[in-house]
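Journal club prep, notes for RB
We'll compare a predicted complex against what the paper describes. Inputs for the adenosine monophosphate case:
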Amino acid sequence: MNIILLGPPGAGKGTQASRLVDERGMIQLSTGDMLRAAVKAGTPTGLKAKAVMEAGELVSDEIVSGIIGEALDDLKPETGVIFDGYPRTAAQAASLDVILSDRKRTLDHVIELEVDEDALVERITGRFTCAKCNEGYHDKFKQPKAAGVCDVCGSAEFKRRPDDNEETVRTRMTEYRAKTAPILPIYEARGLVRRVDGMADIEHVTQAIEAILDS
Ligand code: AMP
């Protein structure tokens, strides 16, 4: 099974993708995560992407489609994939069609997480993760149970994304509205789009997605 999770920044794509990985043994391909790893490692791709990401703008279609193709080549054909944060433009959607058909994969669902945009800035600017195990937290909605200590691995080190500040979030939203939302009709025309209420609590969103995957 190959699915795309679509929705604006902060809609919960990454959270839901990692839950599906745990529960279904699917693989999450997050271009954002892959680009952040490239920036951290200082690869040529990372060097090109760093400033663009910090500004909240979109990295070039060639770069992201290239890393998606390479990542798929590392997987067994039967492994299910969740595309998280890709495609984000009409050109990327067209590339994904080719990338999938070259690998004899088909797209099963495009799941749109519908959210109230006003809530997103608060969701994003408050979020942080454990620097060691990547467990997600939030200043207001999910503090660690013991202050300053990760619930999962006990680490005392946490990190925030440099692009999770209000100004950059606004640019990311504008990019989403201008370039990513317009790809929904492409998938709607193929009958692939399913909508989920992304404002529900995390568990309910997961259940709604699971119901779609089992349908
Ligand atoms: P994300 O983690 O999905 O919020 O992505 C963080 C940043 O990485 C975005 O604001 C973009 O700068 C870049 N990025 C991630 N995925 C893509 C993509 N599919 N196309 C272009 N830029 C991307």
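Talking point for the session: The pocket of adenosine monophosphate is lined by residues 9, 31-32, 35, 52-53, 56-59, 64, 85-86, 88, 92, 163, 172 (CB under 6 Å).
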